[in-house]
Each structure stands twice: as structure tokens, then as C-alpha cells.
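Example 3.2
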Amino acid sequence: MSNMQKLWIWGAAFAVFFAGLYVLRDVLLPFVAGIAIAYFLDPLTTFLQRKMRSRAAALSVVCFVLLLALLLGVFIIVPIVQKQMTLFLANLPVYAGLLWNKVEPYFIELKRIFPSQADNLQQTVSEHLSGGMKLLLGTVRKVLSGSMAFINLLSVLLITPVVAFYLLRDWDGFCNVIKGLLPRQEARTIRKLLSEMNDIISGFVRGQATVCLCLGVFYAVGLTLCGLDLGLLIG
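Structure, written as C-alpha cells:
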């Protein structure tokens, strides 16, 4: 097979793949989330497997911790965040008034220096703020009250752990199957490049996720202990 034929075949395969992603985009979220969770947890599972001498035992421990964290989020964190979100939306006009009190002296000074431009600026800012607030409130109301939102959330909660479990159980098998599909002549080079890409991307993504998680917990706990009403939501 010539290089041009290989190029056409791989190009057609990628075109079909991305077309399938586009057609199935509405139902792919639980599967993408499951793949992401499995990718994140595979190093931990492999580490426990070496310690416990059993992939099944290591996977059981990881799934138990993951299920515990999921239940903690659903039954404890989500209701608190929902309550604080409702409080935030109810007090939004108050926050806007406080913000205006901070900005008003600068605006008065600007109006004194540029009297003709200040009126147009005030009108433009008011229109944009009003439109932005309506869009934000409408989007939040639609997300919280839509029936599809509940169905999507339920599908994510039910399907994602199943996908993550089976991917973690057979992760090495999947990797070996993919390696077996590589062209034999270029297999070693492709595996080397993929390994280097995986090391760089996984280090960056897992590092950023760890930093975000630590900062989120730090801000949520710290602001809540300081007495801020929306501490958990901000964190």
C-alpha cells in the first residue's frame, strides 16, 4: 500500500470518527466523563495493584472511594451549593447596588471631566448590564428547571461510574488492542511518541486538577469558617 493510499484511508477514518462524534454529541457526555475518570484513576489503580497483587482488589478500593466521594457530593455538597446559589440570585440586586456605590465616585469624576461622553457611557453600561443580567438569570432558570437537565444529570450519575469501572478493569487490555492496530513498520515510533505525549499531557492535566481541587477546598473551607454566606459556592 502506497503512502497516498494510507493517507486517504486514515483521512476517511478520521472523517467518519469525527462525524460520528458530531451526530452522537448529545449522548456522549457520560462516556466521555467515564473515560476521563478512568484516565485519571488508572495510575492509582496500577499502584494499588502492585501493592495488593490483584487488579480486582485495587479496583474495588478505588471504586469504593469514588462512590463515597460521589455520595458525599450528591447528598451533602450539592444541596448546600444549590441553597447558596438561590441565596446569591436573590441578593444579586443588593450586590449590584454595592458595586455601584463603589464605582459611582469614579463615574461622577469622569462625568465632570467629559460631560457629553459620560451620558452615553452610562446608557451603554446600563443596557449591557440589564441585558447580561436577564441572560444570566434566564440561563440559570432554564438549567435548573428543565426536565432534560434532570435526565442528563441522572444519566451522568448512572452511566459514568459503569463506564469508568469497566475501562479501569480492562485498561491494559484496551491499550494492547490499540497497540495491535498500529502499522507494524511505524509501531515503535508511534508508541514512543504516544508515550511522550501521555507523560506530558497527563502530568499537566493531573497537576492542574490537583491544584484546582486543593485551592477549591482551601477557599471553600476558609471562607466558610470566616463566616461568608457563599463560601462553598465561591470555593
